[in-house]
Amino acid sequence: MNKLIISLLCLMTLGVFSSQAGTELAVSGEGITLESFKGSVKASWDELETKEETSASVEGSKTVTDDGISETYTGVITYTIAADGEGSLSFESDDKFWTSNVFMMFCAVLVFIMHLGFCCLEVGFSRAKNSVNIIFKNFTIVAIATLIYGAIGFNIMYPGDFSIGSFFGFAGPGLGGTAGEMGMTYSDGYTYWTDFLFQAMFAAATASIVSGAVCERIKINSFLIFCTIFAGVIYPIIGSWGWGGGFLGDWGFHDLAGSGLVHATGGAGALAGAIVLGPRIGKYVNGKTFAIMGHNMPIAAIGAFLLWFGWFGFNGGSQLNGDPMGTSGIMVMTLLASTAGVVAAMILSWILSGKPDLSMVLNGALAGLVGITAGADVVSPLYAVIIGAVAGLLVVVAVIALDKLKIDDPVGAVPVHLVCGSWGVVATGIFGTAEGCTVLGQIKSILCIVVFAFVCAFIIFTIIKVTIGLRVSEEEELEGLDLGEHGMEAYSGFQIFTNQ
Amino acid sequence: MNKLIISLLCLMTLGVFSSQAGTELAVSGEGITLESFKGSVKASWDELETKEETSASVEGSKTVTDDGISETYTGVITYTIAADGEGSLSFESDDKFWTSNVFMMFCAVLVFIMHLGFCCLEVGFSRAKNSVNIIFKNFTIVAIATLIYGAIGFNIMYPGDFSIGSFFGFAGPGLGGTAGEMGMTYSDGYTYWTDFLFQAMFAAATASIVSGAVCERIKINSFLIFCTIFAGVIYPIIGSWGWGGGFLGDWGFHDLAGSGLVHATGGAGALAGAIVLGPRIGKYVNGKTFAIMGHNMPIAAIGAFLLWFGWFGFNGGSQLNGDPMGTSGIMVMTLLASTAGVVAAMILSWILSGKPDLSMVLNGALAGLVGITAGADVVSPLYAVIIGAVAGLLVVVAVIALDKLKIDDPVGAVPVHLVCGSWGVVATGIFGTAEGCTVLGQIKSILCIVVFAFVCAFIIFTIIKVTIGLRVSEEEELEGLDLGEHGMEAYSGFQIFTNQ
Amino acid sequence: MNKLIISLLCLMTLGVFSSQAGTELAVSGEGITLESFKGSVKASWDELETKEETSASVEGSKTVTDDGISETYTGVITYTIAADGEGSLSFESDDKFWTSNVFMMFCAVLVFIMHLGFCCLEVGFSRAKNSVNIIFKNFTIVAIATLIYGAIGFNIMYPGDFSIGSFFGFAGPGLGGTAGEMGMTYSDGYTYWTDFLFQAMFAAATASIVSGAVCERIKINSFLIFCTIFAGVIYPIIGSWGWGGGFLGDWGFHDLAGSGLVHATGGAGALAGAIVLGPRIGKYVNGKTFAIMGHNMPIAAIGAFLLWFGWFGFNGGSQLNGDPMGTSGIMVMTLLASTAGVVAAMILSWILSGKPDLSMVLNGALAGLVGITAGADVVSPLYAVIIGAVAGLLVVVAVIALDKLKIDDPVGAVPVHLVCGSWGVVATGIFGTAEGCTVLGQIKSILCIVVFAFVCAFIIFTIIKVTIGLRVSEEEELEGLDLGEHGMEAYSGFQIFTNQ
Amino acid sequence: MKLIVAYIQPQKLNAVKQALYSKEISRMSITNALGAGQQGGYTENYRGVEIEVNLRKKVRIEIAVNDSFVDSTVETIIEAARSGKIGDGKIFIYPIEECIRIRTGEKGTDAIGG
Amino acid sequence: MKLIVAYIQPQKLNAVKQALYSKEISRMSITNALGAGQQGGYTENYRGVEIEVNLRKKVRIEIAVNDSFVDSTVETIIEAARSGKIGDGKIFIYPIEECIRIRTGEKGTDAIGG
Amino acid sequence: MKLIVAYIQPQKLNAVKQALYSKEISRMSITNALGAGQQGGYTENYRGVEIEVNLRKKVRIEIAVNDSFVDSTVETIIEAARSGKIGDGKIFIYPIEECIRIRTGEKGTDAIGG
Ligand SMILES: Nc1ncnc2c1ncn2[C@@H]1O[C@H](COP(=O)(O)OP(=O)(O)O)[C@@H](O)[C@H]1O
Ligand SMILES: Nc1ncnc2c1ncn2[C@@H]1O[C@H](COP(=O)(O)OP(=O)(O)O)[C@@H](O)[C@H]1O
Ligand SMILES: Nc1ncnc2c1ncn2[C@@H]1O[C@H](COP(=O)(O)OP(=O)(O)O)[C@@H](O)[C@H]1O
Predict the structure, then answer these.
(1) F25 within ligand 1 shell (Cβ under 6 A)
(2) Against a cut of 0.90, is the pTM above it?
């Protein structure tokens, strides 16, 4: 016969700055018996309004002593009160929680390095004379987006309760919370901090996507202002619709890691930026399209590879725990779709221009990745390959179409993120097995996302344009933003032609 | 007193495309009692032919209710029937499985980034005018190798049953399997998907190794055809001999992560390619050897460092679970051997050419890594250092020897992967403590691997050569493959001498 | 009623080279009963002198058989003898140990890639003509530091017992130990090998920090000699004061991951090197400071991003286990401080020079990271932001101040690592909640570290200078160390101005 | 035969090239140059230190023409390269003594042009 | 004294250099150039857009020689650089008025050669 | 009007530039060049193979001046660029027939200088 001793320990003592109030369970301290625990939980329950079939959890430990050997397990104790008023207790070990949390943290770190990926891709696909500016943008985006997302965005995206319909809510500024609610009881597989870490990386990614479309002509201060608003307010609002409990859920919206909420949002912002800014000098002259070649393909390749690398964390971590079948399935579907994207883009570009285009192939991988991001958890290998291949074709076509529309997007942010992101959302409706997720619901959802993101970004860019100005002077653009905005060169000493 | 309720849940619902049949255990659903489970397993057992001392496993969960607290554990229930016909049940928690699977997935992701390593090393060690082509090759290899390996290679490498001796088998095309056999019951530490993820990265690596030796002169379409066959058929056949249950096991062959099966195989393919193609124009003129300098050492350094980085996953993950002592020992031996390789290559190149040669030092690290890949799990620190140091010396000598033989291998794929890979296999016989593993067995094994890989690669390259052609025209080679094959430049705007 | 059978298995069979003696618990083998185990542990205990309230641990497994289902758990069995002579047994499952060890290994691998970060940052911030040399240094540092740290440094840093006060101790040369003491019983969250892996990466980092300050003028052999001594002896001695049980502990010194022990130590060595070497030709002419621009900002950005990336492992792993709240909190504080560093450095450099300086922003991230390294586990988000922001300001001011002092530090190693490292230690005293940690204790500690590191480094550099020489000839410096030291170019074929 | 060497703003290269082509002057050689002229320099900034840069990026165009083409070539370049701002560049004219086409061995006036 | 400027195919540089050395002409200066000539351009392709590239990579060799060396130098270059294909390049000869060796201050014929 | 072309050691560029400025010669064009001269080459080493490099990095300065400035310019260059070691470089002087400022259309002596 086992003897159970339940001792509840407040495990978190991190003296965090907390701007939020929270109800803390009154039960803590050592030596508390089962009955006293039940009693106190019940007491605090009785104060609440709804008593039917609800539960409270607290971190604690459980010690088993048997045959002279004592064993202690840490985990979460949940007290559930059923409809008949009877309470029952259950204990869940935190072993898997540790594993899931480690998994999520590494996924977040993988997503972090995607920002170097965005940076390198953009540097490589643009001209040498703008490299310092591009690096500056991409580096500071991470900082600015993290800080603003921490200050307000996170609590807009996960507002708890919505204040305007299921459209907008805000849980107050700042990070942190009640000790005891940020650990194992916070979620099934990650702590509050891990959640923020992972989410902040996504917010920064959304802003980075815009960066690629507006590069080589946008003023640095104007861009940073845009990013602050986009990552701190617009993205979180959109995110709350899907992941924060908002109205997209009513349509059965399924978007694992953000084909729509992250990529299409960023892509729509990119489109707005490219339109408001207009094309780079020399891109469209007398109705003819000219190519402005990227200056450093090895750096671009590093970028594409690192994005690919980080995407395993982006999608894998979005399951929000380390469940073996789920996460490994997601990773494989992610890989299959990206490889199909590469092959499809290669073949189509080979047919269209007679020679296989490296820049299209790099974009093809990203297209496949963006495409599978919504449904990596709900499709089979065959469908993953189809989704990726279609995305690979779409990106090639969209790059060409965009040029026809005279919209200048140096790195292909719109084709990759907006077009393939939208495709990914719809494809999840077509091929996915997610419950309640329909093609129609997905289409309605992606329309809401794209229209809102585009309109907001368009308005913000326009306001910036008419106030402090959005675009550098023609002279500065010709000489390069590195000298104009930063007074510095990227490749000091190299002899570089800057005639384009 | 505990009350045990066994409820079996079919945990995997991923609607995977499956081209394989499989026997699914008839036991599933909730509320099944111990006795009914035993009964149904036994029943399905009775239908099978062999009943002696065999067992069946199924994923399930176990709930303990004691003193009013209920706890549920998930894991695998195994029913074993002993020789006397008595059946017994055991339960294994899946906590460690989660950890192992997370470990394996991250190792696979680390191996993924090795492809950027291969890419950068090759770009850096060759001329600027061929960079686009090299990036194109290395990027598409990942895609093509993954897809062909998924379509057929994986099931050639792990055929289950061999159809030709223990030399060749094929379990049918496609990925996926019976739900319930792809998770915890699939292996000790990883799911079916994780397995494929990890293995696909290895197949791609084998093809990437060849890439380095044939660069700056091979036609892109010919190369892609070669890769498809090499990664999809040749490598899997060789792999099946060692890891798929083939005949090398009879000789006590031990090759942890593929010094032989991956690196020597790739290296032998590289040698065949370099021979069939012949040297680059200007490399050997009138019996004299000329150096064709790599054009970007920082990119090469990024490559070498990333390969080193990824190798911790390559070797670490090859233990196939997250066991602390095993994996951490492997990582340390990997580190020690690589560092010894660096120092040995540095010293020897310093002596031979009067100045320490950076390219040799980068190769030295890789040499040490390739060398320790076979035996990282069965050698002591001292032997790891010796293995790495010898590899570091070998690579320097082999680079020079290869030039004497007028075989042109721009990045040193043959010295690093073939020579040091073979050394690694033999060294495991000499220094390792693997049971049944002898020097003779290792030598016989590596000979089989190298000869088969070389002959196959030689034949494939030759067939391509006489049919669609293997090498670009002299004119194209002089102007650079970037313009010839892709109509694009790697460093648009940079002023570059292309006179070599 | 459960039946407990304890079978003790010697889990580690790795035939490691071991140069150390160790007491092995006499208990092993299968089928040992609880009583016999207790008895034998007690017996070996009785031989020891101190018997009061002490304990012994051994890896083992525990099997529970109940209702026909047998379950086996592996872990550590600890036998504790209380003051009254009564012994008690406890069992701890190794599930969390596996997770923690996996976490630590990946953190070590992340720290590994920081060496590529250091390398790229240094290459990017210096001139093209010295790139080969810089890569060579940074690549071989990893090798040399690992080997010397494995040979002696590790056992100086963790001497067990100190031989000179609590100032110096040495546990004998070599790696390895008694099987059975290197696994779960070695620590709470990592094996002996994982420990070495993680620690060796730190030793190499310390040497890499010095590299940045002395580049573009130091002789390669002299530098390698310095590194060997610095990473193998000086750093371990300093490390032992704080992490090896030395005298800093008496002052309540708290330094999570080494703001002081690693970064300030490396930074002090960097300062000594920069002073002994003197500035690069052309840096200070006739009392005027000239800028010597870095030649490759994309490579520098890759460096800064990779350092940032790896730092999540550097700080995260330094908690030495995978506890969810602890590690995730550390990661978020690390992120917040670095982002604050970026923003602060951006704003200050924008004000000071009219335009935002990319190199300052990159340094700002690193400054924030160095600053938070000491206290990431004991501060709140608000304080993390403050610490990072102050570090970001400090680094800008320190770069300018150093130029005023005519100390030439090409990459800013002294401002980033010495200045912000010292700040980080002090800030932990100001803002942190670490028990016993006071501002005064932190100041005293950092003074000891910095003075000792500086004096030692100064002496070593001076001895090298007067014996084999420290600096290359003026002619070689002008032509570049790549040709002079290595007879090789970094960018063969590129047209590069080398007039500075 | 004369050699016309023009230093122009890099961003004008395309315009100048097009203009010359339209005049059927399709032979030229181009190099990168750094130039100091009336335009003056600018200030860069690196790690808190100001850098006076007085060498600006220019493109150097070399066109060897028969004497009759000199004026039209010069005019064409001026037209295309001129923006009216300081830094527009300069043209120099040098005598050529001989010109030989490597492929055919043709010399003089024949070799220079078509 | 004459200045011989030759534009050749980049890949011929080594051959030309060797040929000149063997004739003991060992002084020269080399720059990179982009050239438009009879050879015509080629088409690149980037992200679905065609690019007409009409400037091809050339190497520019400058050799200052005493008058007596002009012919042999020109011949040597032609011999080594010629492949018979369009794009082989062109040689220009200019007058030099003076030549000074910086180290010694020697002038004229002495300074140019050995 | 003369064109002065000086090949100097790269590391002397700053000194030469300063010296010229101090003499109020502030117009020049600079290109990168590889040069073979008396200085001889050096040996590089790559993957075990020796490489004879006989082209050394040089900087090419082009200064167009009015005749009266020729001597002082040459002297200034020599003074600043000379180290006394082999490899110091060489100066060539060529005749200029015409010089035109693109912006204003000024010609000749006016265009060259201020
Ligand atoms: N006297 C000269 N010698 C050599 N190059 C010159 C001279 N004058 C002008 N250049 C070149 O022409 C470029 C354009 O100069 P610019 O500033 O427009 O000339 P200016 O000062 O005559 O108006 C300069 O950057 C330089 O490369
Ligand atoms: N008239 C010219 N002026 C300047 N450079 C020229 C001229 N003609 C030829 N070149 C240079 O010589 C190179 C070789 O030209 P090529 O096409 O062989 O000449 P051609 O057209 O006379 O056969 C050209 O790319 C260009 O750099
Ligand atoms: N005759 C020449 N023709 C072209 N360039 C020359 C000539 N002589 C010297 N140079 C250039 O001047 C540079 C300096 O040469 P240097 O070795 O100092 O000359 P010298 O051999 O006359 O002493 C050479 O590298 C080359 O670029």
Answers:
(1) no
(2) yes
